[in-house]
Amino acid sequence: MQLFNMGMPVYVSTTSNPSNSILVYAILDSASDHSFITAALVNKLKPKFLQKKLIDMETMSGESAKQDISLYGDLVLNGYFGGQVKLASAYEWPHIPNSTGAFASSMNIKQCQHLRSLENALPPSFRLPVGLLLGANCSAASFPLKLLKGRTTNHMQSDQNLARLCLVLKSKVSMDQK
User: Fold this and answer.
1) Which top-level group of life is the source organism from (predicted)?
2) Do 12 and 22 touch, CB atoms closer than 8 A?
3) Average of pLDDT values for 54-79?
């Protein structure tokens, strides 16, 4: 079975400069309390600096370390198919890893026979960097607005504020504030 990251292409800008909009992938992460933005995206967008903060970072493997990192705000996310979510704040991080590299798209969904009926509802494939990891402080990005069933009862696609995500095996999606 083909697995896809829970991510989507989004246009990122700031409220102070909405015309400077950059298309990147945003990964949804229900295990993170907060959102993260890459240093490269911070350099291009110049979002509002909020503060330097010493935080406790804990990895999925249980390793913990204190990190002094910058917190930025004033971010706006616009979905590929429409919809907008304001992201109050995101921590700057050098790089956001993409473990599988595969995002559901109109091209690669064709590999999954049971999901082919959803092909036209998904964005095309892009060669884009991952610029954001959206945590619990941005749950509006993944809050389901509408569900579309695939050909079997175990597969569906969900329309969120920013994107259409392919949900496999009745995955549960939720996050926070618009």
Assistant:
1) Eukaryota
2) yes
3) 85
Cα-based torsion angle of the residue sequence 85, 67, 64, 75 in order, rounded to the nearest 10 degrees: 0
Please provide residue 118's backbone torsions phi and psi, each rounded to the nearest 5 degrees.
Answer: -100, 0
As a whole number of Å, the CA-based R_g of the chain is: 16
d(CA 176, CA 9): 19
DSSP the chain: ----BSEEEEEEEETTEEEEEEEEEEEE-TT-SS-EEEHHHHHHH-PEEEEEEEEEEE-TTS-EEEEEEEEEEEEEEEETTS-EEEEEEEEEES----SS--B--TTGGGG-GGGGGGGGGSPPP----EEEEE-GGGGGGT--SEEEE-SSTTEEEEE-SS-EEEEESS--------
Mean pLDDT of all residues in 44-51: 98
Q: Average per-residue pLDDT in the chain?
A: 77
What is residue 35's predicted lDDT score, i.e. its pLDDT?
A: 93
